[in-house]
Amino acid sequence: AKFVYDFTEGNKDLKDLLGGKGANLAEMTNLGLPVPPGFTITTDACKVYLDSGEEPAALRDEVSAHLDALESRMGKKLGQADDPLLVSVRSGAKFSMPGMMDTVLNIGLSDASVRGLAEQAGDERFAWDSYRRLIQMFGKTVLGVDGDLFEDALDRAKDAKKVTVDTELSADDLKKLVTAFKRIVEKEAGRDFPQDPREQMDLAIHAVFDSWNTDRAKLYRRQERIPHDLGTAVNVCSMVFGNLGPDSGTGVAFTRDPASGHQGVYGDYLQNAQGEDVVAGIRNTVPLAELESIDKKSYDRLMQIMETLENHYKDLCDIEFTIERGQLWMLQTRVGKRTAGAAFRIATQLVDQGLIDETEALQRVTGAQLAQLMFPRFDEHARTRPVGRGIAASPGAAVGKAVFDSYTAVKWSRSGEKVILVRRETNPDDLDGMIAAEGILTSRGGKTSHAAVVARGMGKTCVCGAEELEVDTKRRRMVVPGGHVVEEGDLISIDGSSGKVYLGETPVVPSPVVEYFEGRMHAGADDADELVEAVHRIMAFADRKRRLRVRANADNAEDALRARRFGAQGIGLCRTEHMFLGDRRELVERLILADTDTEREESLRALLPLQKQDFVELFEAMDGLPVTVRLLDPPLHEFLPDITELSVRVALAESRQESHENDLRLLQAVHRLHEQNPMLGLRGVRLGLVIPGLFTMQVRAIAEAAAERRAAKGDPRAEIMIPLVGTVQELEIVREEADQVIAEVQEATGTELRLAIGTMIELPRAALTAGQIAEAAEFFSFGTNDLTQTVWGFSRDDVEASFFTAYLEKGIFGVSPFETIDRDGVGSLVELASAAGRATRPDLKLGVCGEHGGDPESVHFFHEVGLDYVSCSPFRIPVARLEAGRAAT
Ligand code: PEP
Ligand code: MG
Fold first, then answer.
1. Which residues take part in binding substrate (predicted)?
2. Considering only CA atoms, which residue is closest to atom 5 of ligand 1?
């Protein structure tokens, strides 16, 4: 293998091998731009070194050969006493990575060659300044000496001279500083500063290799999901000097504004300095535009080069450059980081400039960036220190008075107060309070806990599982770490994007992108800003490209209408259990407790018109688009009173010898229905098969509502979905009953109803027997929440708050499988079931309605396996549309 590439040998597409920096230096070299000559040691060499603890056998000779070539080209030798060649050694992985060793400059200087450099440059001060920089950087990054020791010595030298900036130190001051620095190295590293230039270079190269595995670098890779086995390249580059006097300097620049995307002159320049001075902020830089008056020739050349780079990379580039005595040198370039807003603006600007097409524009933005643009945010400048941190469950910024129960949340919000609902965890009873609140904070539960799922569905800010907070709902207070007590009515702020919790009020700004999706701001209108315009256009690109359709998870007309505004092409999941709350709970309670057929039928009869009305509204809101109604799913005990509360009530009544017949009956029922593992108990289709008349009542309500809409000249497109099916027999029974009810309604109303009946695939057995199940199902919708739960054996309500942090830290997975589909496990079941289902029934419709339907990476997977649609909460629809478009490019 070849381990070393001259800059003339590489190109920008070799990032795996040469790292980002090396690949781009090569690219610039081959574009004919002024890059100081040099070479790159490959990531392969690094991998060998890291695996075996030794550099590959061939490396030393290859480096020697490239160094020879460099020396003959430059006409001087590394560290040559009378006229030294100096080089920089810089790390450069495929992805830019803070936490890794960055740069050692001026390698080749020694007690001997510093004098030669002084002579050649005609500047003694410069030479000694360069030498002290080498010892400082080398000491810190190669020999591991605490950098503050050097900084302190430098400060002492400045104090002694009563000067504030290092340029005011004389050659003699710097000589003394070199002596002091060498002593620091000796003392701290237990060795002399190496005088042999090749030894300096080799040690620096090894230090770069080693820096791949520092704790900080590893942590960064885990967080950013960068694989640990890539390794880093090392760039050895001949030195050019920005610190040779006022006609020299160094700077950074962007080819356009990374915040707005606007073209113009953006960057900073520092006269008479080397690169790290800019980063360290030792002296104040001037805006790049001022370079024009300092050095017009270099400025004009730089502008020209920036244009060349933009046209070549067809993107915003950031660059580092140095001017040595009026000669401009390019030290680095890369496609620049940008804010989420700028990503959208730049993509459309580049389309307008004819540099990229629509397809490429879609690759320049991400769903995560769009999601970021959709949340209201805390004003950056006004934040205080967080008092706690939980799981960032539903992004956004919310401020309000802490309340500890739903009733108070509703009451206070009715009187105009903004509240944050604080609970240990939420359950369907809290729904009213959640709607009334600005945000939800819980101390238990993970990303798919009730609070998280419902909040995301509503687009409401939520922080869950903030375990350090002691929430005491009885005493209506919460204790934060450190002991401070938040009482009911105290203001708190929660950031659903970071999971952070703050005391007091933090100012919030709304998202213009949401205003646009909501139709409150129109692209093309005078008041629409550039961002909205850009988002509007990119969404149109995505919609033109995508094959996947996007539906919404919505349970009421209001959500449905919002989903439509956001671009939903139907409802993929209406969870009917959400329609049984509030006033209707009593009716459900009666249904569950019914001892006789008559009692049960009575309560079902009472529920029917209510359900029907729900559906009429929903079908009207989604007129002309498919609406998948899922029959009742959740465990029954969720509809019954809390077992402890009820026991207390019964016991109290007994001791007072009061009548408590009803409560007693209720308590017996609650005991009977209580389950250790409710998620795996009496739910879904099992419920429909056990409670006679329940599913048929729901089917009747759907059918009658559809007929009513039809009579009103509407175009209802209802689909009936059966949850938690494990075997085709369950489905067959429900189907038979449903078909009969539908036939009755058709007969009675004289309307032909085409109601497709399908099933959720959310149990492994359903996936494994999908070929049989498809005999009785006209569509499948993958319930990837339950499928993930059952495939992994992870309780969706508990694990994220209990051991997922440890799993993430150990790298068992990079992200929760409840958030991004686990392709290998859950995903392969989805793939298998899709194929088996379609083999039985070629026109089987396939969709997904678990949380993954709105997750960017998962959307790509669902596109790849050929689903027809994804369904997600209304606020995630734009993200799903965008990612479906990106997946199709
Ligand atoms: C699922 O399990 O993925 C699903 C959509 O159903 P629910 O979340 O209501 O169980
Ligand atoms: Mg489910």
1. 575, 630, 762, 783-786
2. 850
